Amino acid sequence: MKKLQSDKNLTKQVRIDTGYHTLLKIKATKAGVSIKTLLEGYLADLLAVDEGVKSVS
Known about the structure:
With 57 residues, the chain is mainly α. It has a domain at 19-46. Helix content is 47%, strand content 0%. The chain is built from two helices and no strands. It has helices at 18-31, 35-47.
């Protein structure tokens, strides 16, 4: 079956509310980083697993 997707990038996009985007833009500007860098940091912290905590399957 032929793929109809024209986007060959390995990255993914997420749609967010305009209000959240505005808040992220302000925080990123104050931190001197891009929105992408700010969100990747938040996601890394959120998804980090402590060694002493068992993961839930």
